[in-house]
Amino acid sequence: MLTRRIIPCLDVRDGRVVKGVNFVGIRDAGDPVELAARYDREGADELIFLDITASHERRAIMARLAARCAEQVFIPFTIGGGLADEDDVRAILAAGADKVTLNTAAVQRPGLIERCAARFGSQCVVVAIDARRVPGRGEEDASGAESGPTPGRARWEVYVHGGRTATGLDAEAWAVRAAEAGAGEFMLTSMDRDGTLDGYDLELTRAIARAVDVPVIASGGVGTFEHLADGLLEGEADAVLAASIFHYGRHSIAEAKAYLAARGVPVRPVCLAPAGSGLAEEAATPAGFEPAGAGSREEPVP
Hints:
With about 300 residues, the protein is an alpha/beta fold. About 30% of the residues lie in helices and about 25% in strands. The protein has a single domain, classed as Aldolase class I (TIM Barrel), CATH 3.20.20.70. The protein has helices at about 30-40, 55, 65-70, 85-95, 105-110, 110-120, 170-180, 200-210, 225-235, 245, 255-260; strands at about 1-5, 5-15, 15-20, 25-30, 45-50, 75-80, 100, 125-135, 155-160, 165-170, 185-190, 215-220, 240, 270, 280-285, 290. Mean pLDDT is about 85; it is low at about 140-150 and about 275-300.
């Protein structure tokens, strides 16, 4: 059985980690490398860095951050934001990242997914989908029946440029197309829930998870440990992304994993080193389990 992953997400703007609500209302959360090293010590399974301004302002990609992070972080990490072509992707991977996320460029040039998967391997290619519920489509109630003003299948539209530009693309259809092109994983963010602490859009997450046969990372809205469990159990995600509940010290990775384990979710347990030992925290994987979708830094970059 595959273990489920907890992945802290670090949105980076002007070299600092920030967090907002519904993709706006930005506030500072700290230095990205310092936070990354802390999450590594605390037992996070992976990390994702996103330059939230790169696509909009066409800023330089974060190769320097990848290099700094590779020196201090020893779990897989992904970098995205403004990556426009194969050369951008190669630069990030060569600097030390395990994976990259593609969003705007992939939507504008779907062939980029196929080319990157062929050149670097599908395991390196994470397609990020920022989706907003189409107005008039209600959410499912507790029984699974849809409620709201307009009966019928719920739909979500794909947005690009950091959530600023609507594309007209149906999120589920785009996920299927991207998976066929070679995407090795999806980072699925509900723009309606992002930063609200109200929980993931479980209907969205479940729809995408059932539509594709590659791992799906649930993102957008987690505020409690219960939300993490819901994303994995009800949303059927392979991993859960979180920011606000970890960045400001409200909760720890170890606490989250203990809760998930108690709910019957297979996770990689955290074993803390004795206080003052100077040893980094280590995480042991029990027999029969392996991380779902985990990348490897051992593979050479073509």
